[in-house]
Amino acid sequence: MKKFLQSLCGTLLFLAFYCAFGNAGEGLTFAWSSPNMSNQFQVTLRDCVKKYCEEAGIRMLEADARGDAPN
Fold it and tell me: Is 24 left (phi over 0), alpha (psi -120 to 50) or beta?
C-alpha cells in the first residue's frame, strides 16, 4: 500500500506541476486506473482527480479492474 500511495502522489505531483508550468489543456490526457471502484477510498481519489482534470481542461480516461489484476 505504501508503494501505491507513493506512486499516486508522484503521479499527482507530476500532473499538478505540468498544469502549472506546461501547456495544460492542449491535448493532454490523464489516464486513471483503479484496482476496484467498489472501494470508497478509490472512488474518492478518482473523483478528486476527475474534478481537477475537468477544471484544468484535461481529458481523463478511466479504467476499473474490478479486483482482477490482469485487467
Answer: beta
